[in-house]
Design goal:
With 272 residues, this protein is α/β, with parallel strands linked by helices. It has one domain (7-248): Spore Coat Polysaccharide Biosynthesis Protein SpsA, Chain A (Alpha-Beta Complex), CATH 3.90.550. It is 36% helix and 14% strand. The chain contains 9 helices and 8 strands. The protein has helices spanning 20-25, 46-52, 66-79, 99-107, 131-148, 164-169, 181-191, 214-235, 265-269; strands spanning 7-13, 34-39, 56-60, 84-87, 113-117, 160-163, 196-200, 256-258. It has an 8-stranded mixed beta sheet with strand order 7-5-6-4-1-2-3-8, sandwiched between helices. Helix 5 (131-148) runs parallel beside helix 8 (214-235) and helix 7 (181-191) packs parallel to helix 8.
Length: 272
């Protein structure tokens, strides 16, 4: 608990067996009340490793994608009564210890959403971010700031914290099941006038850390452009997009189940 708020950490996982223990070890457990891991049909022992660490584990019946994984994460965090929900990638790319200040920025009532920026502090390149990703990060961020009237240092970090109200109200079911979900969700938060804060966060790039390749990065970039264009048009009442609609679908659906140690994606599909 922090200032009377229940803190839930969610981890969207895919083949994170090797890095999960270190990530969990560095979480500030003095304020984290629950850790929920959602496995997107990994090929390794991610589910078993999470169970051995006493995490609450859910597994998808198929590999549904990063965006769908987050939908499951946030749905289960809300069911568990989380007041503040922080998404931490289990690949140890971001510093888990920053959960404390990120949660504090929301628990204090200062912000509704907090993102951990790799750009603030200038450590992205020294941490190993590929130069082409850094270049496109800066270009896309500039485009979004101009189109959306914001001054964020980046829109593309995977380390985020949300208040319960944000997760309950945003039409997250209208978003993609792919990587662009991250960008759509942040654009929605801005569109619906939630307060977004930033904190500087070093990031590490190494072989075990998850990272999308060049072609998926291109698809992501095109998705960002489409999301920003939709935002721009909707703000001016020139178009109507469901991801920014007041009647858009909030979290729903059931395509996964809670699992015990030893269960695999394959055994789930066959009802074992």
């Amino acid at each position: 608990m922090l200032l009377g708020k229940k803190i839930v950490v969610v981890m969207p996982a895919y083949n994170a067996e090797k890095t999960l223990p270190k990530t969990v070890e560095e979480l500030p457990r003095e304020i984290v009340d629950e850790v929920i891991l959602v496995d997107d049909c990994s090929a390794d022992r991610t589910v078993q490793a999470a169970a051995e660490l006493n995490l609450k584990v859910f597994a998808h019946d198929l590999n549904h994608g990063y965006g769908r994984n987050q939908k499951t994460c946030y749905r289960e965090a809300l069911k568990s009564g989380g007041d503040i929900v922080i998404m931490v990638h289990p690949d140890y790319q971001y510093d888990p210890r920053l959960v404390l200040p990120m949660a504090g920025m929301i628990a204090s009532g200062t912000y509704d959403v907090v993102i951990a920026s790799r750009i603030l502090g200038g450590g992205a390149l020294t941490g190993g971010m590929p130069r082409y990703k850094y270049f496109f990060n800066r270009c896309l961020t500039l485009f979004q700031n101009l189109a959306m009237g914001c001054k964020l240092s980046e829109y593309h970090t995977g380390y985020r914290a949300f208040s319960r109200e944000v997760l309950r109200s945003l039409p997250l079911e209208e978003n993609s099941d792919d990587f662009v979900f991250d960008n759509q969700m942040l654009a929605q938060a801005v569109y619906f006038n939630y307060r977004v804060g930033e904190i500087s966060c070093p990031a590490k790039y190494f072989p075990e850390a998850s990272s999308i390749g060049f072609l998926p990065s291109v698809r992501y970039g095109l998705g960002v452009l489409a999301t920003t264009t939709a935002y721009f048009l909707q703000k001016r009442n020139w178009a109507d997009f469901r991801i920014f609609g007041a009647k858009g679908r909030t979290l729903e659906g059931a395509y996964y189940r809670e699992v015990a140690a030893g269960r695999t994606c394959e055994s789930m599909q066959h009802g074992a």
